[in-house]
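I hope you will forgive my troubling you with a question about protein structure. The matter concerns a single protein, recorded as an amino acid sequence and a row of backbone structure tokens. Please examine both parts with care and let me know of anything in them that strikes you as inconsistent. Here, with my thanks, is the record as I have it:
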Amino acid sequence: MFLMLKFVLIDTFVTKMYVYFQLILLLFIVVIDLQIQAYLNQLHQTYQRTVQLKHFGLSVENRNLTAIKISTGGNNRRPLIFIDAGIHAREWLGPAQAIYIIKQLVENSRLLKRVDWLIVPLLNPDGYEYCHVVDRLWRKNRSKGQGCRGVDLNRNFDFQWSQHSKFDHECSNTFAGQYPFSEPESLALSKILLEYAHRTKIYISLHSAAQSILYPWGYTTEVPNNGKELHRLAAKFSDAIYQVNFTEYKVGSAANILYLVSGTSRDWAYGVANIRLSYTVELKGVQSHILERRFQIPPEQIFSAVSEMFEGIKQLHSYIEGRYGY
């Protein structure tokens, strides 16, 4: 009897480890080998009743910008959670997190009963490929300038645009562009956000690696009129993550936690699209004085990082479902 139990426990452990390493392999295949489009198409074929793909624009180098809508029905009346990732090329954990969320949603219909999801797993495919092949620290898109390439897409939104002079030079890593929405990627995201804004109850933009949950504003240290709600929900989000592996995420407005910044998708979603729960989620990274290392989370830590974050995402879902669920 004891021997049989021992074999069962060993078999269970081996099975769990196999699933774990398969997931790590999936994240690396999907994210590192740039097979996101193929993976989304595979999901669409496998889960045709719940998954829809929407190509909502093209990048500077004519790559598809694709959103995946995950829903079990509701005639487009249900509240919607909108998530994007990969606006900054070098922040590889963002797309991995988005893929993990998508995978969990299609395999767990409980999270789809009263809430719809729209996820853009990679907003900056050109920069993302470039930083895999040429420059690991590349941040911007790949638009051509007079002397330097690229615009910081998360400074290019038409809300308090270019309020800081350090964004004005095209060779700057945070160049805001020649004018608001000069870039096809940021413009396309704004259009799809407006298309779904009437039922989007929460907007989340996944970044790394400041390990923070940030709400508006970025351009000023003041907070919006629903600042207390934004903070309370972010604190619950942070607590849910902490319960998994004791990982602490800072909570607060972007300007107060990090620095003053304007023209961001988060502030635009709140200030223009009127999405009252708007967050930038800075995923965990590596503590290092060397910039490159901050974004290079060890492969063996990826599963821990994305799975604990998903517990926080589930907390946001519970809030939206309880308050707005259809």
Observations:
- The beta strands are 51-58, 64-70, 80-85, 116-120, 200-208, 212-215, 250-253, 278-283.
- Residues 1-16, 28-33 have pLDDT under 50 and may be disordered.
- The domain at 35-324 is CATH 3.40.630.10 (Aminopeptidase).
